[in-house]
Amino acid sequence: MTLALQALPLALLLVLLATGRAGPATACLAALAASLPALALTLDGPVLPFLLAETPRAAWLALQPLAIMTGGLLFHAAVEGEGDAEQRPASPARIFAVTLPLGAFLESVTGFAVGAVFALAALRRMGLRGPVAVALSLHALVLVPWGALGPGTALGAALVGISAHDSAALSAWPSAAWVVSLAPVLWSLQARAGQAPPWQEASVQALGLLAIGVGLVLWHCVLPFEVVGIAATGPVAAWALWRADPPRDLRTALGAAWPYLLLIACLLLARAVPGMPEMRPFPDLPGFSLTHVAVVLWAVSLALLLSRGRIGRSAAALARARRPALTLMLYVVFGRWLAGGGIAAALAGALAGAGAAYAVVPMGFLTGFVTGSNVSSNAALMPVQAALGAALGWPPLLAPALHNYAGASGAGLAIAGTAMLCALDGTARPGQVWRLALPMAGLALLWGTVAMLAWR
């Protein structure tokens, strides 16, 4: 009875979203209501004090991705072109360039699904809308362990006392296999969008994904793990964009690229400044410093808007964020209630059972899918997974690295992020998107299981 009540909120949410019976916000409100009986049975104490303590923590966690999302919308308003530049038709090369290589590159720099927001905006400018566009944009989130320079990976490693670099290097192997194996999924979605790539283009795209996968593994040998995502995707993104829309000359290319280069330089410089004061109302949750990604993104975006005389666009850009902001806030609250109340851990334990070794990857994926964040996923279940790995006699790095990979994969397809992207699109529903993205989830679980079998 207890397990059924614990599973009810998540089951209700998924059913409502998958069937389209309720929108993302309404479905989450129903799931929040359904979680109250489960919390009453799971918690050691009364529910109300828990809600009063945990909900502000959830709001604080949501504040950071919300600030980055709105900053990304402002940046897009500052750099979007006009006239012919906005009317370029869709093509397989353009779709590929803006989704995985460029989207994953921007996600590695900024994190918090900004890469997917940029990818979706670029697809919409090509005239692509609906579930296919959202499913394509989710490919920007395949390198979540290195997103925003890897705070979730660092936190998870710190929680269980292992090297963050070594954990990321081990996570890179299944991540690389996942990226390369996504080629047929990308081709299928491009075909659904009416832009099936000919075999020559498909071969070039496969080569680009292979380059990202190989770089993801090899760059850990010479670079800090925080910048590996940037190093692996940056050259491929530049090459793919050049192929998709060759500039008239180098000056034109630099003129189009300089706002992005400025943003990246400012973000990297901000990360290089140590010891900046920060707001940290909750000692065990990430802080918000003057050099936070959101602060830099807002500052650069507003400077560009002012310098280009486009400050009037900011109101429209921020207005687009209202519904996604509410949706994301509700889902982060839901994830924190489930994780902080012990429901996520209870469901994970029920999944383990006799096949505990085979449950590590699905448990990690489920936690990331529910919480919507690699930081939250690792905070919620990394110690449990590490203890499970020790009980199974695994090497100390294996269970944490598998959880980091699987939780990040789930976070890339998460309830909150998908709902936010659907709200930005305005026509798609999460259930429609997940049906298209199901092969992505299946491949993520497959490669995590293969890695577990190879290394245990």
List the SSEs and their pairings.
Layout: H1 2-19, H2 24-42, H3 47-79, H4 92-110, H5 114-125, H6 130-137, H7 151-160, H8 164-181, H9 183-192, H10 199-218, H11 228-244, H12 250-271, E1 278-279, E2 288-289, H13 293-307, H14 313-319, H15 322-340, H16 343-352, H17 356-371, H18 374-391, H19 398-412, H20 415-425, H21 430-455
Antiparallel strand pairs: 1-2
Helix pairs in contact: 1-2, 1-21, 2-15, 3-5, 3-13, 3-14, 3-15, 4-5, 4-10, 4-11, 5-6, 6-9, 6-20, 6-21, 7-8, 7-18, 8-10, 8-19, 8-21, 10-11, 12-13, 15-20, 16-17, 17-18, 17-19, 17-21, 18-19, 19-21
Shape: globular
Share of helix among residues? over 70%
How many helices? 21
Integer-rounded radius of gyration: 21 Å
N-to-C series of helices and strands: HHHHHHHHHHHHEEHHHHHHHHH
Strand runs, count = 2
Description:
It is found in: Cell inner membrane; Cell membrane. Uptake of L-lactate across the membrane. Can also transport D-lactate and glycolate. The chain crosses the membrane at residues 59-79, 99-123, 168-189, 201-219, 254-273, 285-307, 328-361, 405-424, 436-455. The chain has helices at 2-19, 24-42, 47-79, 92-110, 114-125, 130-137, 151-160, 164-181, 183-192, 199-218, 228-244, 250-271, 293-307, 313-319, 322-340, 343-352, 356-371, 374-391, 398-412, 415-425, 430-455; strands at residues 278-279, 288-289. The protein is globular and about 65 Å long. A hairpin with an 8-residue loop joins β1 (278-279) and β2. The chain has one domain (2-455). α6 crosses α20, α8 (164-181) packs across α19 and α15 runs antiparallel to α20 (415-425). With 456 residues, the chain is an all-alpha fold. The longest helix has 33 residues, at 47-79.
